[in-house]
Design brief:
Largest sheet of chain A: 6 strands, antiparallel
Helix content of chain B: 25-40%
Shape of chain B: globular
Oligomer: heterodimer
Order of helices and strands of chain B: EHEEEHEEHHHHHEEEHEH
Structural class of chain B: alpha+beta
Number of helices of chain A: 11
Number of strands of chain B: 10
Helix content of chain A: 25-40%
Largest sheet of chain B: 8 strands, mixed
Order of helices and strands of chain A: EEEEEEEEHHHHHHEEHHEEEHEEEHH
Number of strands of chain A: 16
Radius of gyration of chain B: 18 Å
Distance between the termini of chain B: 43 Å
Largest interface: A-B, 50 and 36 residues
Number of helices of chain B: 9
Distance between the termini of chain A: 52 Å
Chain lengths: 409, 272
Amino acid sequence: MGSDNPAHALLVGYEQLTDFGFALLLYKTRPNSNAWYCAAPEKPYDAKSYVSRFDLHHPEQEEYFDADAIQEIRIGDPYPSVFFWEGRAHIGSPEAILSSLRDHVRDVEKYTPMSLTDLSLYARSRQLRRHASTTYSYLTSRFGAQTAHSWFGAILVRQAAMLDIDKLVTPLRHALERAQSQALTNAIAKIRTSVAGRSIVRIEARGLVDYVDLQQLARARLPLTHAVCRAVSATYELAEMSADDVDVLSPTERRVPRGMSLTRKVSSGGDELHISVSGKGMHAGAALLTAASERVRQSLAGLGILRGSASVTFSRASVGVKCSIAFNARQQKATARATEGNAYDALQSACERLMQQIRRTRSQRRLDRHGARSLKLQIGASFERRDDDDDRSTSQDPSDAQDPSDDQH
Amino acid sequence: MDKRKTRTHRAPLVLDDRKVRDDGAFYLVHVTYVGAGRQIIDADQIEVRYCKHFGKSLVYFFLERPGYRPGESDEKSDQINRFPFVFITPMPAEQSPFHVYPFDTGAALNKLFDDKADPFVYLEDYELGRERSQIAAHINWAFGSSEAYFRGDVLADTIAAINPWDDVEKSFFDIAQIATSTHNRPDKRASAVEIAFAANIPITHRGVKVILPKQLLEWGKNSNTHLLEKMRDKGIAWHPYNWSAFSRPDDFFEEITAIVEQMIYTSPSDGE
């Protein structure tokens, strides 16, 4: 028997709901042990998340992978998914699965468009809008407009809105303790959507009122939600539900917010210089995280900057490690990148370049030091372990992140 | 909680027939998993299974509420938690229940309510009357309305009016607190009315509705008669929930609960 809370497990099999599309992956702590586990992601609404724990499970009809496909998965690893198509298992991140299905994508779209829509949603693919539109037609032709519309309004828009809102509030997480951050994740998982009228979907985000200003959220642009709504010529609105009535929050002006702010119920602490450090496509250990945070803080303090936000990201380069720093304050933005043989050297070089850049800008335009307010825009701390196959998809530059709403088909 | 060694008959737990709901249109909810759901549709009926606790073949329903088994690790509950498949059927007119209890007897006999239950009250003491009017009376007495019952919110006025010597009623409310919406980790089975039948319950052309994983709306390349085609032929309506391999059982059941509420209390569903 294995432990009840293993830190790592072997991915050995799966349990299917249907013989195509997504299936539940099954784990064991040792190849011959009796106990089965399934992995839980950190964010229960996002397949592109990290393994947060392994839960005991009793499969009814377990199937085994071939011995050479068995791999070890640890807590903190990218969450693996499996997608079956014509008897073949495609395993990995949503992007990796989408890419390995590319030769069959026309068939998949024809026979299982809904599962493909899920895949392109979690991969944040440019094809999302097209796949959502195909699924809507597929469901309409088989079951009628009522089923298609309720899938769209209650399921798809909800999935998209949870991912969009999660991304919007990610910069706030660094001001939250772990338990609070978990509670925020649970509040996002409780978001509901419903069809509010002809071609309007209402997003009910009551649980988020403790964390964000819902009026501000209502003005924010939700790119994935926007993309799926455009697929069926619908629109969306954000509503705050109370016991007896619904307040629809003004959706008149939608734009990318310059930063979400926490509502007063959660303290963000007295320190006005926010630094988040993350490893993208690689594991950033605690020592590196502390060193990076301190090094950037010292560099900025050396220039007299005490407010603002900085995001430090480490990723694997073709040779060595790349360190990217993005600094934001009200009147100043600066970014710097450096690639060196190891993470600490890359950090040192990137810090020097960042300082040079800030000095250069200052000589042209004097920074109003005390007025610079914190803008909490950058990516929060997230930890990603490297996996060879996944790395290509996860370690891309942020500039590669696709905005599916731009999709033209 | 234990059963009595010998069965004794006692008056139903509560009877307050001043406020009986008069429409009588109760819905019963049977939560199972996808594999069993397919078999039920093929067999045209929800079949009885041997129940070791009552020594009889029975089929179990909850009244207008989906029951879910958090934190238990037996094979069936794991399947139900990961691949839930839910039947909602109008209460059959031609069959009388075998028994009616104000909570899940399986959970009670597995001692899941023992922290709250009075140790000197036996399971049989909680049994309700089997008539519709008696079930409705229980809902009105303990919850005040069907909506409050659905949420699991018990009526504070009723609790305040209980005499100190009414140990069964007191113990029932102590157990029912586990299901209230303000409980830290509510277990809705603690106040879900359990209705068991000793005969199979037919599902064809009887206004039955099903809540199933959305993935079952797709055919794939499979050329067999699809589950939903069978359901359409049998006059069974359906509504999909968002199944995904990485979702937690809690998330499934919150969504399913919202769908049950919508199906029972508001609009017609899909597939009709």
